[in-house]
Design brief:
It is a single chain. The chain contains eight helices and 30 strands. The protein is an alpha/beta fold. It starts with 11 loop residues before the first helix and ends with a strand. The chain is 19% helix and 20% strand.
């Protein structure tokens, strides 16, 4: 009897099941390989960032200042004179002689103190912006050589009890959100941060303009915060490849203490030896105790910024017009400045004359007398004409009183009034500066928009100051009238009052929205 063996083949279901299993295993292998590659890229980024930090500190040793961001993409820091062109941009890798791109062939992002692109604040050796000033002894007309000290010194903020303005805080890895609470911070008051945007760097940068990344809304919240830094916070979160909370940014920062350590004659007094022991090494993120700073009132009211001003003036009376014409003609023909000795009343001008000279480019105007409001229309329906500087980075210098309301659009605008302010100033977005050497009288309003603004009143304040979003600084060296008010708006704002802290209760109700308030007795309060 023969045995017939039946060889049974695989059914279609079994074959499909085997193929599915093989597919799952292959997908796992591929994902594992991708994860290993991502991990390798992350480790490589970490090493590059360490190299960049070393290059930043070597630059301080060599040049006696921190570099500015690169806004053109050529790897060279961008400055206007001694000051930064911008406070965010590409890492200036060519200036630093370090890595140009991260492990994903994309640029590194570099952010510095948010006042470093102004002209007056970085000249103040006590301000954190001075770390980025390439001027010997904070004088923009001097360049640093090997014998000169840097602009910053041991008292430069932050120091213990005196935090720095315009710096950054770094959230630690243990929190998803960060509210500047000490327990949530890995570091605070950091002048400079470098970020690698990781695997999605190309998406994050997008069509960057002037070194500012696109920061699309599709980014996870913490990654978006790292590239569009609006509140001074950077995140060092846990790495995650989940689509809902994807995060693979890497960052390093440079503290003020690390910067100071690069200058030997500063380093000698950073730490004193305890009795019977070796000198202590302070933690890099913990400011070292220093002597109390001098009263802020010792900072002088600044001179007029040098610029190529267009001098605009009217004449007064037949004799004034004739003499003014002759003197200005002599100035034009032989290059003298005799017009500066004309009586101020012969050199006043009005808003209509100014408006005829401005456009949407940058306008730089000097009025040698008062700036008054022009009027238009018949006597029974006269209309006051305000001064309009329009768009652009404008400068307006008034050598006597400002009596006309002034408006300026977006841009970094500069106002300097040598005597009294008797009218409103309204400056839209941008980093604006307003200086009044005399008094603010008759209750006008100084209002600035979003941006890091500085308002400096050397005399008394009888009016309103309203600063918008951004990190703003207000200085009042005179007294406040009963109807005066100061509102810092949103942002990390600082106020300086020329009074002892014990008198603050007399004006406290007139002041709002300031994170820090300094007094002339060397004390301060933090709100």
């Amino acid at each position: 009897m023969k045995n017939h063996l039946r060889i049974r083949g695989f059914t279609l279901i079994e074959i499909a099941l085997v193929i599915a299993i093989i597919g799952i295993i292959a997908a796992g292998i591929i994902a594992s390989i991708g994860g290993v590659k991502d991990s390798q890229d992350f480790v490589a980024d970490q090493q590059k960032l360490k190299d960049i930090k070393s290059a930043l500190l070597e630059h301080v040793t060599r040049e006696k200042h921190m570099p500015c961001p690169d806004t053109t993409g050529d790897g060279i820091e961008n400055r206007v004179g001694a000051f930064c062109t911008a406070t965010e941009g590409f890492l200036p890798h060519a200036t630093l002689r370090t890595h140009a791109v991260n492990s994903f062939s994309q640029p590194f992002f570099y952010a510095v103190n948010r006042f470093a692109n102004l002209e007056v604040i970085p000249q103040n050796a006590l301000h954190s912006a001075s770390y980025f000033t390439s001027a010997g002894a904070c004088d923009p007309n001097e360049t640093i050589n090997q014998e000169d000290p840097p602009c910053f010194n041991l008292q430069t903020r932050p120091i213990q009890g005196q935090p720095g303005d315009g710096n950054f805080n770094i959230c630690n890895e243990r929190v998803q959100t960060c509210l500047n609470d000490t327990t949530e911070l890995a570091a605070r008051d950091i002048p400079a941060v470098v970020v690698s945007f990781g695997k999605n760097s190309q998406q994050t940068w997008g069509n960057a303009i002037n070194g500012i990344p696109d920061c699309p809304s599709t980014l996870q919240a913490q990654e978006r915060q790292n590239c569009r830094n609006l509140d001074g916070l950077f995140h060092q979160a846990q790495q995650s490849s989940n689509l809902n909370d994807f995060f693979d940014d890497s960052l390093i920062w440079v503290s003020s203490l690390e910067i100071k350590r690069q200058i030997p004659n500063l380093q000698l007094v950073l730490a004193e030896a305890p009795a019977g022991g070796e000198p202590e090494t302070p933690d890099p993120e913990t400011p070292t105790p220093e002597d109390p700073p001098p009263p802020f009132g010792l900072d002088p009211f600044p001179d007029i910024k040098p610029n190529n001003y267009n001098s605009i003036q009217d004449c007064s009376g037949l004799l004034g017009c004739l003499l003014g014409f002759l003197v200005n003609t002599v100035d034009f023909l032989i290059g003298t400045s005799l017009s500066s000795i004309l009586p101020s009343s012969w050199q006043n001008t009005d808003s209509a004359k100014i408006n005829g000279q401005t456009d949407n480019n940058s306008n730089h105007i000097m009025v040698r007398g008062d700036l008054n409001s022009a009027t238009s229309g018949p006597f029974w329906n006269r209309v006051t004409i305000d001064t309009n500087l329009q768009e652009g980075n404008n400068s307006l210098v008034i050598l006597r009183d400002l009596n006309s309301n002034v408006f300026s659009g977006s841009g970094n605008d500069y106002y300097h009034i040598e005597r009294n302010l008797n009218a409103n100033i309204t400056a839209a977005g941008g980093n604006n500066e307003v200086y009044v050497k005399g008094n603010v009288i008759n209750n006008p309003t100084i209002q600035t928009g979003n941006g890091s603004d500085l308002v400096f009143i050397n005399g008394n304040l009888d009016g309103q100051i309203i600063t918008g979003g951004g990190d703003d600084e207000v200085r009042i060296y005179g007294t406040l009238s009963n109807r005066a008010s100061i509102n810092g708006g949103s942002g990390n704002n600082t106020l300086y009052l020329n009074m002892p802290q014990e008198d603050y209760s007399t004006v406290e109700s007139q002041i709002s929205n300031f994170n820090r308030i300094y007094f002339n007795d060397g004390t301060s309060i933090i709100n």
